[in-house]
Design brief:
By secondary structure, this protein is of the alpha+beta class. The chain has 4 helices and 7 strands; from the N terminus they run ββββαβααβαβ. The chain folds into 2 domains: about 60 residues; about 70 residues, 2-Layer Sandwich (Ribosomal Protein L30, Chain: A), CATH 3.30.1390.10. The chain has a 4-stranded antiparallel sheet with strand order 1-2-3-4. The longest helix is centred in the last third of the chain and has 13 residues. It is elongated. About 30% of the residues are buried.
Length: about 140
């Protein structure tokens, strides 16, 4: 297992209890072989606090993270005969069907497959476990 890779964002929201400004911190990370996210929020006015977590980063938080940090790319440098292995990893980890995996394979091989740094590092680790030379190229 590699070391933890993470990205974080800070943002404000409206407190659901009192309507004041709520300070939020979101983190996406690769930890122990899993891709995880969490958000913690606390209101300094009324004391409301919440923490939520999961494995699939909500779309709005993902877009904010990409906007703030930029996209990372998945770089694969394995020999050409590894396409089926790459597709197998993409299908397993991204829940793609065969046609979608074939399309994403083209993007991976062209160096155009991108996402958050933790997402790309997670896939790179899964590809390396399958014997494919891969890395997340940070912005």
């Amino acid at each position: 297992m590699g070391q933890a890779v993470l990205q974080s964002i800070k943002y404000s929201a409206v407190c659901q209890d009192c309507g004041a400004r709520l300070e939020c911190c979101g983190v996406q990370a690769v930890v122990g072989g899993s891709l995880r996210w969490d958000v913690e929020a606390a209101c300094s006015v009324c004391g409301f606090a919440v923490a939520v977590c999961g494995d699939v980063l909500p779309a709005d938080l993902r877009e904010q993270m990409l906007s703030e940090h930029g996209a990372a790319r998945l770089r694969v440098t394995s020999p050409p005969g590894k396409s089926i292995s790459i597709m197998r990893v993409l299908r397993a980890e991204l829940g793609l069907d065969l046609a979608e995996a074939r399309t994403e394979l083209g993007r991976v091989l062209a160096g155009e497959f991108s996402g958050t740094v933790p997402e790309m590092e997670f896939l790179a680790r899964k590809l390396r476990e399958a014997g494919i030379s891969a890395a997340a190229a940070r912005p």
